[in-house]
Amino acid sequence: MMLSNMLCLLVLILTTLCCAKGSNNHNSSNSSGSSSSSSNKPIENKSNGFFKLSLSHGMPGYYGAPGRDGRDGAKGDQGSPGKTGPQGPSGANGTKGEPGAQGPAGQKGQRGEKGENGTPGSPQLYSHMNWKECTWKTEDGKSSGVIQNCEFMKNFTDTALHVYFAGNLRVGGCDNCCSRWYFKFNGAECSSPGTIEGMFYMRTGRSHNLHRHRHIEGHCNNISKGKVRVGFWVGKCISGHSSANPHTGWKSMSRIFIEEVPTAQQ
Fold first, then answer.
1. Could you tell me which residues are beta bridge partners of residue 217?
2. Distance of alpha carbon 164 from alpha carbon 166, whole angstroms
3. pTM > 0.70
């Protein structure tokens, strides 16, 4: 729209200039006899009703429409580096990485200073070294009393004795009878945790003569260190039944085994 208005204005200016030039030529021919001073007099400005124009110089025109943007210029040289900016805040911790490869073995360190003496070890470290076994191959037909004694050297007070008898025992030739075999320590039966014994009862057996291998075993606490007499005895049952005609040992070895061991857990 603006371009159309400017074209119309330009046509109007050109038309006015042509008219002014023709009038100027006519006046010049009519005044040829006039003085030279009057011929050099500047031409007065004329008005066409819209603009007041000077015939000696044209009126400056309006600014034209802005031209189109030019093309991008060539890439310039790289500028000098800017100044280092302030340090930014610390970032969040990253995820845990995978374990690295194992490094080479380090050099052997220097020998350390001698340490303090440790506390004495538990007896269980060498209890298996303190044991004894008494064996015999004889037959004993007594109904009560000691069958065999076996002396043992106990090293510690806060330990226990583990004992067992293994051999042939017999009951027979009676009805409703019973015999008991048991251990004594220095002449007394064990009280902690209890007696170590085996009882054999027979309901009917007058015509029987039963020889069997038997095993009687247990532990005894509260025995002082030093020499201990471990005895294997035979006698009546605490039930009050009559004796069963006991017989200890028959054509085979009999043995008493003794071992010093740590006390049991509470």
1. 164
2. 7
3. no
Domains of the chain: 125-262 (2.60.120.760)
Structure tokens belonging to residue 125? 């470290």
Separation between Cα atoms, residue 254 and residue 167, nearest integer Å: 4
Chain segment 183-241, per-residue pLDDT in tens: 999 999 999 999 999 999 999 989 888 899 999 999 999 999 999 999 999 999 999 99
Please state, in angstroms and rounded to a whole number, the distance separating the CA atoms of residues 91 and 89: 6
